[in-house]
């Protein structure tokens, strides 16, 4: 009896939290550093946006290392996500290509510019004469003594306009971004934001020697030959760690940290194709999906209530709770919802109903065999459980295979379907094991089963 009430309290708490999470008031949920929006994240096919196809900019006969391609995917995605564009997705497609999706964006030039900003990061000796952020300079990194042109076509850092250095001067690169091991935003005791960094062993030694000999001089942070910051060396940095001061807000400090952390790609990339998906088409698909889902849901809950009577009504309540929990989980992870993702959710709803149907059919068999209602509920659950367990395990294995396939071959459609189906199967097990069973026991406490056996299909 005590365990039954504990389950009921858990169900009530989950429902209250789910209702609160899905109230459309626009305020995000915050718990310390954890923050999630209460809005459902819509994917490219529902929201519209830009899809871009990238390819390794190497000769066709050159083999692209799989780890390098995966590292490039992580760098592109982490850099975009760290800047607050959380719906951006990059995935490897085959052995030489990467697919990028930018929901909500409609300007391909903006997307291409964002990708091309992610290039070579350098720490450059400026001596006593710093230049303004956004200035294009020449450096001696990867250059011969007779060729001082930039190794790549320079692009301006984010949020700045590129300007050329008046004099044809070549600056010395002290080290590159490959020597950074970690970069974070922190606050001093004064409350000022700074960008804190940690160097690898070789970089720490190089930096110690350079900063010891150049106190009071300027060290430029350069991305794709464009200056993004020119801090002063205030003291020797000999411990392999330090911080960059400036008139930073959190946003500007985080933007610099992102550029430092994800500034270099392991392989050069070129844009092969861009495709714009209009928001009108996406909204039309979303509306049709919602209408189809609502119609199907109403048909299913009506069938359950008519055919299984009171247990069917209990199952309908459990399915509503299932939908509420699933939507809440989507927001907490968060899950970017696409059309295939909606299909996975609807299919998982069917799995949740399958579990209830198995239980109720067993319940009816036990009642026809002459057992009382409480015993019939217990026996029905025990005998239905092996089938419920096996079918859901099979579904979970299938989801894992589909998710691996989507991750390995860049099939985002398959990956989204597998993820929502997997989450739905897990949540449906909770609703079948805890919610349906607890509500049935609660119903038998409220009514006299001997007087209402027809309510249970006996």
Layout of helices and strands, plus pairs?
Layout: H1 2-21, E1 29-31, E2 34-36, E3 41-42, H2 44-47, E4 49-56, H3 66-82, E5 89-93, E6 97-103, H4 108-116, E7 121-127, E8 135-136, E9 138-139, E10 163-164, E11 170-176, E12 180-187, E13 193-199, H5 201-213, E14 218-223, E15 226-229, E16 241-244, H6 250-261, E17 269-277, H7 279-308, H8 310-332, E18 336-337, H9 339-368, H10 373-409, H11 412-446
Helix pairs in contact: 1-8, 1-11, 7-8, 7-9, 8-9, 8-11, 9-10, 9-11, 10-11
Could you characterize the architecture of this molecule?
- The model is unreliable at 144-164 (pLDDT under 50).
- Helix 7 packs antiparallel against helix 8 (310-332) and helix 9 (339-368) runs parallel beside helix 11.
- This protein has helices at 2-21, 44-47, 66-82, 108-116, 201-213, 250-261, 279-308, 310-332, 339-368, 373-409, 412-446, and strands spanning 29-31, 34-36, 41-42, 49-56, 89-93, 97-103, 121-127, 135-136, 138-139, 163-164, 170-176, 180-187, 193-199, 218-223, 226-229, 241-244, 269-277, 336-337.
- The chain is built from eleven helices and 18 strands.
- The longest helix is centred in the C-terminal third of the chain and has 37 residues, at 373-409.
- It is of the alpha+beta class and 458 residues long.
